[in-house]
Amino acid sequence: MNTSISGFSKLSKSQKIDWIVETHFSNQEEAKATLKQYWNSDNKLQQLHDEFIENTITNYYLPFGVAPNFLINGKMLTIPMAIEESSVVAAASKAAKFWLKRGGFKTEVLSTTKIGQVHFMFYGKTETLQAFFQSVKSKLQTDAKPITENMEKRGGGILDIELRNKTEDLAGYYQLHATFDTLDAMGANFINSCLEQFSSTFKREALLFDGFTAVEKQIEIVMSILSNYVPNCIVRAEVSCPVSELSDDKTIDPDAFAEKFIQAVKIAEIEPYRAVTHNKGIMNGIDAVVLATGNDFRAVEAGVHAYASRDGQYRSLTHAKIENGIFTFWMEIPLALGTVGGLTGLHPLVKFAMRLLHNPSAKELMEIVAVAGLAQNFAALRSLTTTGIQEGHMKMHLMNILNQFDASAEEKVQIIHHFKTHIVTHRAVVEAIENLRK
Ligand code: HMG
Fold first, then answer.
1. Active-site residue, selected from the candidate residues 13, 16, 85, 363
2. pTM score > 0.90 for this model?
3. Is 36 considered catalytic here?
4. 215 and 189, same domain (yes or no)
5. Domain that residue 316 falls in
6. How much is the CA Rg of the chain, to the nearest whole Å?
7. Which residue in 113, 71, 101 sits closest to 374, CA to CA?
């Protein structure tokens, strides 16, 4: 059967659905009903969602939860989280509650510089290119003025433009490496517009530069694009307390726990297989807040993981130490976030999330997101080094298993009661349902 189609994008939403179900589904009515049950009855809201992306046929829901009790630099916050995985919100909440009684989280934005590059090929003399770059550098900035004017009024804009010689890695390859401060905007559109302007000025001026030969004048721009690697847009989040206060559970000795916790972090610092899972746990918290606040989690993920391998080996993003009886646990990560532009002014739940966070600046959002990541890692490591992860995770996952088996409200009450005193495993839950239904 031919399942290719030309002109799909031009079809109406219902024509697209018709084509999809006719081409790919034997039970067409059921497939259509599955899609339609997620449509919003408010047509305006549905249209807004339809227009976020292309070829939209329905909405894909993610749960939107909240983790209360976060004390960050002395300010109380309830953090919104959009995520599908059970136990993440509970873990963040538990860590927030734990650190609330121990002074809370301390954060600091260490830098906010973002990067964009014009990648181009030039096969002439490097010295002549450098002379041309020096002659054209201020023109690059002046030509971009219509784009940068408003950002400059607010205190941001282009910080610098450098010529970088990359010919040792690739013959003829150079870059205009530009740095920006985009304040409360994530800045992707601003940076890309500046870069495209730089490339057209650079190409145009090269044709007029007397120092170039006819061949050298033909600079070949390959592409102009921001970098999602932002090692100079860094936020630090930290918690600390006396080791003696590190346990709120009589069964956990604080000294032994602190030692084991630090060993767990050290293992993730030196062992990439562990580091990836360790950092995945951090991203549980980070992505959930990034998504809830309408930011680009793919950009954050790519940048964070590149940072985790900046010395050539993939390592833990968090660190821990004991000094003079004080346990300190911290993380420094790159985060390029925005609180204006993009989805932030459009998506009703993103607006809600921003209000819940007291309309943070981009810097404040960097701090909140980093805290969610640190809290998540603390909760996961606490479980991993004490009870093991499955106990708490499966306790939270219980409802998913019950839903898989279409448990009724009454069955849920009885089974949840049963598992207050029994360990949750998939098999144990299935057995409990079967016993109840006998
Ligand atoms: P617990 O001690 O059984 O919870 O922990 P509790 O019932 O005693 O409640 C204590 C507090 O936890 C609550 O306080 C809440 O803050 C929170 P309260 O609200 O009662 O004042 N809490 C909840 N919040 C909302 N809904 C709930 C809920 N239950 C507790 N239903 C818990 C249970 C799951 C929190 C704990 O075992 C835990 O933190 N586990 C870690 C879970 C985790 O990390 N999950 C992420 C998924 S696993 C993964 O992907 C990452 C990993 O591989 C990363 C790595 O390897 O590093 C692990």
1. 85
2. yes
3. no
4. yes
5. 64-111+234-387
6. 27
7. 71
Q: Are both 186 and 317 inside the same structural domain?
A: no
Residue 13 token pair: 């939403």
Mean pLDDT per 10-residue interval, the chain, length 438 residues: 90 97 97 97 96 97 97 98 96 98 97 97 96 98 96 96 98 98 92 98 97 94 98 98 91 93 98 98 98 97 98 98 97 96 90 97 98 98 90 82 91 90 89 91
Indicate the residue among 193, 227, 261 that finishes a domain.
Answer: 227
Domain count, the chain: 4
3-state secondary structure at position 260: helix
Q: Which of 227, 244, 270 is the last residue of a domain?
A: 227
The structure tokens listed for 438 are 């006998």
Ligand 1 geometric centre to CA of 383 (Å):
9
Q: Is the CB of 383 under 6 A from ligand 1?
A: yes
319 plus 407 within the same structural domain? no
Q: Where are the beta strands (DSSP E) in 96-232?
A: 106-109, 114-121, 157-165, 173-181, 220-227
CATH code at position 216: 3.30.70.420
Encoded tokens for 262: 């630090």
Give me the long-range contacts of 390-393 (CB less than 8 A, separation at least 24): 390/425, 391/423, 391/424, 392/87, 392/90, 392/91, 393/86, 393/87
Q: Do 138 and 287 reside in the same domain of the chain?
A: no
Q: Give 390 Cα–ligand 1 centroid separation in angstroms.
A: 11
Query: Best of 86, 88, 93 to mutate for ligand 1, by most ligand atoms within 8 A of CB?
Result: 93
* 290 in any annotated domain: yes
CB 363 within 8 Å of CB 335: no
In a domain, 59, yes or no: no
Q: How far apart are CA 90 and CA 101, in angstroms?
A: 17
| Among 139, 177, 217, 280, the one annotated catalytic | 280
245 Cα to the center of ligand 1, angstroms: 20
Q: How far apart are alpha carbons 175 and 202 in whole angstroms? A: 11
